[in-house]
Design a protein that fits this description.
Blueprint: H1 10-19, H2 26-33, E1 51-54, E2 57-59, H3 62-72, E3 81-85, H4 91-100, E4 111-116, H5 119-129, H6 133-140, E5 144-148, E6 161-166, H7 175-179, E7 181-192, H8 199-202, E8 209-216, E9 222-230
Parallel strand pairs: 3-4, 3-6, 4-5, 6-7
Antiparallel strand pairs: 1-2, 7-8, 8-9
Helix pairs in contact: 2-4
The chain binds S-adenosyl-L-homocysteine.
S-adenosyl-L-homocysteine binds next to strand 2, helix 4 and strand 4.
Length: 241
């Protein structure tokens, strides 16, 4: 279903995702309507598929961005703090900012930190976001910041986060990311299953990557759930320059 959602305009793409019930929440729909994918995926912006953005990275497919927002939505309120790890093109960072930044004059501004380990992609995300007036304002006000660093360590400086999104497949559920969650808070992370790359996975048993949703409850207890199978580029060491 999700792969049939492509459109010829941004609005058509988002409406198709909504009709297919990939996007269910009106706030997610509004936030995605507010960001033109053409600023982030210039070659085929309204196709519901991942697109290369250089440096071995891809902008994820619109249906994956939708799923990420849907799973995190209860923790994306005006004033929330969010960490977007593997921010790549900057598209999802912008959508997340639309969800958490309060209206002008509010006492709780909300903030999204986008982190990527490839400096050229951090620069790309900044310039992509500068293509729109609201994107420029979000960066000028400090409500969106793009940082170069190893996302496997999170970003302690602005922790704790109400929501953490990881846009590349991790080898484990990095405990430091759970530490940096607020209580309550939620982590959305693709993780390589233990059997990936083994003979078991080649036989179709238990291999591949799965999205995990990790909740830190208000009392500090942690609940982990494996929700669906995916295919992301890996979360790796930075390439040597
Ligand atoms: N959410 C992004 C996904 C980009 S692809 C988008 O839709 O545009 C995954 C990104 O993870 C790449 O940009 C890659 O550079 C980044 N990445 C991989 N390993 C990383 C690490 N250890 N720390 C930070 N970023 C990493």
């Amino acid at each position: 279903m999700a792969w049939r959602c492509s459109g010829s305009t941004n609005t058509e793409l988002i409406e198709n995702l909504f009709k297919a019930e990939v996007i269910k929440n009106e706030r997610v729909k509004e936030a995605m309507l507010g960001v033109d994918r053409a600023h982030y995926a210039p070659s085929r912006p309204y196709s519901d598929s991942p697109q290369p953005i250089g440096h071995g990275a891809t902008i994820s497919a619109p249906h994956m961005h939708s799923h990420a927002c849907e799973y995190l939505i209860d923790h994306l309120q005006p004033g929330s703090r969010v960490l977007d790890i593997g921010s790549g093109s900057g598209y999802l960072t912008h959508v997340l900012a639309n969800l958490v930044t309060a209206r002008p004059g509010s006492a709780t501004p909300g903030q999204v930190i986008g982190i990527d380990h490839i400096p050229e992609l951090v620069e790309l995300a900044r310039s992509n976001m500068n293509k729109s007036e609201d994107g420029r304002q979000l960066q000028d006000s400090g409500q969106v910041k793009f940082i170069t660093g190893d996302g496997r360590l999170g970003w302690k400086e602005n922790a704790p986060y109400d929501a953490i999104h990881v846009g590349a497949a991790a080898e484990e559920l990095h405990p430091v990311l759970i530490e940096q969650l607020r209580a309550p808070g939620r982590l959305f992370i693709p993780v390589e299953s233990e059997n990936s790359g083994t003979s078991l996975s080649s036989l179709g048993f238990g291999g591949g990557q799965y999205i995990w949703v990790v909740d830190k409850k208000a009392d500090g207890s942690v609940h982990k759930e494996k929700v669906f199978q995916v295919s992301y580029v890996p979360l790796t060491d930075a390439p040597r320059s």
